[in-house]
Specification:
six-stranded antiparallel beta sheet; 637 residues; 4 domains; Glutamine Phosphoribosylpyrophosphate, subunit 1, domain 1; 17 strands; 15% strand; alpha+beta; Rossmann fold
């Protein structure tokens, strides 16, 4: 796990390559390296995981005609290395990085299709003056780029690109609309019009001052209904065991996040059965006024006890001072998934003990673990009820319900369900994932009509994935929902928060569920085996039942988030009121202050849960303060 930066142009003489690369020091504190010539500069910060003694970068091929900087891990590099040795290639190191470079020498740009792992890398062909960038299939590792006056910049985090003051910080308003709709900004957008995300499964080529972007891979969803349930269970468990084993390759200590849920518990069980040393496990709990929040530490302890792990716990308290600034600076753009808070702390305690941690992320997308999948299935039954009864009785009754006093989401989810279910399937899905009450969409922003236009652009971007021809399943559109989440929510929210919070602490996090062999196989499992009647993750639960305590499998899923609903109403109330005061909102004039006040009042009174929207506003205000008012980025980096 590392940080990479690069710049390419017809002339880069005088560019501060070392200083810019060092803005990514936190991603790789062990060592750094650079390469530059008249046309390209490559920078690297290294967190040493494999080949500790000789894996420093940039790495060159035999005749030094090509070089590479790389962030990530390649889990099949031993097999590729053996094949390349047989083809006559000579290796100077034992690293996976050099294997990528020789694969490029042998197979060109198509070599990226042979890599199994998480990666973002850049290869500079010195003779052809050609730069090749690639990002892994699922977006586990980030890669940003920008073009300005014929010059190309790329980096693991935007802060390195933003160090050049010529890069505009003009806000992308479609990205802003996406942020307040989804709580994150989907690729290829960023909050800055001048900077883009290279989408997962894509490669970028720069030559003669021109950029070309192409998709080298995409997931095909073709359910195989000719196979038995037992076949899918047996095949998955074999692939899962192999994936976890591959993700254990390391020359430094490793451990695992253990939330108490099925996915992380299954990873720990597999790690314990892999013949490694005692597994280090790390869990998070929450203090303060938690209301109806379900603390899953008790389930994590069951797994830790069963597999005799070296277990560590940490209790997170609602103390915003300091942590919000660290979160904002880690993302360089507004990011409002409040799982960033527990992620920050679990990465912190893990790094005090290990350098690598395995995570259960990806199991929900592969096996239908989210509540919205259940809502999507129930939607077809709900719509059989006569429209008059749905609209005049059920919807009006649900809309009038007060939110639960303990802060739980039950009523809020019901409201989102009745507001969206009557729409077409794709529009209903967008309604389920939207974090903003439709009644607020025309009122939150000062320029309401302008926001609606950008909101529609956001919807079009998301539903472009939902309606992809890659989902060849006419039997159940649930497959489209999961595919869309795999293309958007997984890389741009879940994997993003994991990368930034782990890299803030120089910790490498690996995700064995998000392995291309496992994900390809799961795309063949019929959706009715993933969500069976009202049982989410049916097949996964049945598969891992022999290796996990029954209570871990049957308890209600909480997810890796904190009790933000109650915290905002209690422990964080003063902070929220101060941050969203009208005088602070006037600094940019983007929001309707009266609407913001209404949102605050409704949430504090328990009439409607607006936790995500309130947190989005708080994070945006802090981001605006840091990146526009105080310009602290340049001072701190």
């Amino acid at each position: 796990m590392c940080g990479i930066f690069g710049v390419a142009s017809d002339n880069i003489k005088g560019f501060p390559l070392q200083e810019t690369t060092d803005t990514l020091f936190h991603r790789g504190p062990d060592e750094g390296g650079t390469y530059s010539d008249d046309h390209v500069g490559l920078g690297h910060r290294r967190l040493s995981i494999i080949d500790l003694s000789s894996g420093h970068q940039p790495i060159f091929n035999e005749d030094r005609s090509q070089c590479i900087v790389f962030n990530g891990e390649i889990y099949n590099f031993h097999e590729l290395r053996a094949e390349l040795l047989n083809l006559g290639h000579r290796f100077a190191t034992k690293s996976d990085t050099e294997t990528i470079l020789h694969a490029y020498e042998e197979w060109g740009e198509r070599s990226v299709e042979r890599l199994r792992g998480m990666f973002a890398y850049a290869i500079w062909d010195i003779r052809k003056k050609k730069l090749f960038l690639a990002r892994d299939r699922y977006g586990i590792k980030p890669l940003f780029y920008a073009e300005k006056n014929g010059r190309l910049y790329f980096a693991s985090e935007m802060k390195a690109i933003l160090r050049d003051r010529d890069i505009s910080r003009e806000i992308d308003e479609t990205a802003l609309a996406c942020y307040f709709t989804l709580s994150y900004i989907p690729a290829p957008l960023t909050i800055f019009r001048s900077i883009r995300k290279l989408p997962p499964g894509h490669a970028l080529t720069w030559q003669n001052g021109e950029c070309t972007i192409r998709k080298y891979w995409d997931q095909m969803v073709v359910p195989d209904r000719g196979k038995s349930e037992k076949y899918f269970i047996d095949r998955f468990m074999g692939l899962f065991k192999d994936s976890v084993q591959a993700h254990l390759v390391s020359d430094v200590p490793l451990g695992a996040f253990l939330s108490g849920g099925i996915d992380s518990s299954a990873v720990v069980a597999m790690m314990s059965g892999a013949g490694t040393n005692v597994v280090n496990t790390f869990s998070i709990g929450f203090g303060g006024n938690t209301g109806g929040y379900l603390d899953e530490r008790v389930y994590a302890r069951m797994v830790a006890q069963r597999y005799a792990t070296n277990h560590h716990e940490y209790e997170v308290l609602p103390e915003p001072q300091g942590i919000i600034e660290k979160i904002v600076q880690s993302f360089d753009e507004p990011f409002a998934d409040d799982s960033a808070i527990p992620s920050y702390y679990v990465c912190k305690i893990a790094r005090e003990n290990v350098t690598v941690a395995l995570s259960g992320l990806g199991g929900d997308e592969a096996f239908a673990g989210y509540e919205r999948y259940l809502g999507f299935r129930l939607r077809s039954l709900y719509n059989r009820i006569p429209n008059f009864i749905r609209q005049k009785l059920i919807k009006q009754f649900i809309e009038g319900l007060p939110e639960r006093a303990d802060g739980h989401y039950t009523v809020n989810h019901m409201k989102r369900f009745v507001r969206s279910s009557a729409s077409s399937a794709d529009t209903a899905y967008f309604g389920y994932i939207s974090r903003m009450n439709p009644s607020l969409q025309g009122a939150l922003f000062a320029d309401a009509e302008r926001f609606r236009t950008h909101h529609d652009a956001c919807k079009e971007l998301i539903l472009g994935h939902y309606n992809s021809p890659n989902v060849q399943d006419a039997h159940d559109s649930l497959s489209r929902v999961m595919y869309c989440d795999m293309k958007t929510y997984l890389p741009d929210d879940i994997l993003t928060v994991t990368d930034r919070m782990s890299m803030y602490h120089a910790l490498e996090v690996r995700v064995p569920f998000v392995d291309n062999e496992i994900m390809d196989f799961c795309a063949t499992i019929p959706p009715e085996l993933k969500l069976k009647w009202l049982t989410k993750k049916y097949l996964l639960k049945k598969a891992v039942a022999p290796i996990l305590p029954e209570a871990v499998i049957t308890h209600r899923k909480q997810g890796f988030v904190g009790p933000m609903t109650r915290w905002l109403q209690t422990d964080l109330k003063a902070y929220v009121m101060e941050t969203l005061d009208e005088k602070n909102l006037r600094k940019h004039g983007l929001f309707n202050a009266q609407t913001v006040k209404r949102i605050v009042d409704e949430h504090m009174a328990g009439r409607e849960i607006h936790d995500t929207l309130l947190w989005s506003l708080v994070i945006f205000q802090k981001w605006f303060e840091m990146y526009y008012e105080k310009n602290e980025f340049h001072e701190k980096n």
